[in-house]
Amino acid sequence: MGGVYTHILPLASDGLLIPVRTRIFPNRNVPDTQVSSRGIGWDATDSWLLEGQFCIPSGSTLQIACTADADVDIQSPDIFYLLTLFASGDLAFRWDNRNGQANAITVSDVIRVHRWHHIAMQKTTNDSNVRVYCDGVLVLTEDAPHPLTNFDEIKFAPTNGIPRIREFSVRTRDVYPITPFTPGPVSFAATLGDTQSRWNSYMIL
User: What would be the CATH architecture of the domain defined by 16-197?
Assistant: First the structure.
């Protein structure tokens, strides 16, 4: 018998709900000690990998902002990277040095609502390119000539809905490929396997 089927929504206990702007302040004891300095977060001067699994509800958007300056303003020299996941299917990356130099790039038909996506953002040693992977496939490469020196603040900012996040990590090893293993796109999708299962790069290295 025919019908219209949809995926089961994540369980109430599956992943961390992000109903409001949520921040990570590495190497700090917030809120016991409020932010009063800058540039003491996780090192980003060499290679790094930021990754996690994200579930975006219908009509929603999730912004992941990374900056080397955790104070409340975003004035120069607050260089920041902004990765945005849209329920419409788009995925966008923007860098801005808050001094008149910025760029943004968007790819379409990447995000599906109510599905877990593994998203990874990576920078390799001696390379100004930032690469973004979705479900194990390289979907975006952008030259960011004004690099972050450290991850002083990581902010998750939702709009119109409550996204979910799980298996989030930041590490200094750039373990994902930047050239294809075989003819075709740069991918580690075969290693990742079922995109709805839990995953992060510590499972391979």
Answer: Sandwich (2.60)
